[in-house]
Structure formats: C-alpha cells, structure tokens
Amino acid sequence: MDRVKWIESTLRAALAPQHLTVEDESAQHAGHAGAASGGGHFRVLIVAAAFRGQSSVARHQAVYAALGDAMRSHIHALALRTLTPEEWEKVGP
Order of strands, edge to edge, in the sheet holding 19-24? Predict the structure, then answer.
C-alpha cells in the first residue's frame, strides 16, 4: 500500500472523518534533507466530529497519535487543516 493510501486508511480508522484528503507533496521537496532520508511531505485536510471541543493543538496531536511511528520514519512533514463538520460547513474547501 502506498503512503497516501496508508495515511488515509489509518486516519479513517482512528478518527472516522466525514471528509478527508491527503496530498503527497514530496516531489516538491526533492533534495530536501527529510526527502533524502525517505520521509515524505504530505498535506492533509480532515473534517471530523472527533475534533469538537478540541483546540487546534489537540486536533493535531490526535492526528499525530493516529499516525504513530510513521511520524518518525515515513512522514517528514505534515501540513494539517483540521476542522469540525460545523467549521467545514462555514468555510468549505
């Protein structure tokens, strides 16, 4: 399974998002130290009810926890946009 699909399936299982997109931006960072060591650069938009009542920091921590050891090995950089369903309705994509 490629890394994007793995990230998607892992986050779906952990946070049951209503909307999720994962983009691999690794090619834009070719030659970067993290890319050289095999870690990828990803952009994630995740909309989940699980984020209700959580601060931005807590939401990010929940995503990092779900991804576990991959954050130290397969993922070098992770740009996150974490929203509740209500926030998603207001701001959209």
Answer: 19-24, 40-47, 75-83
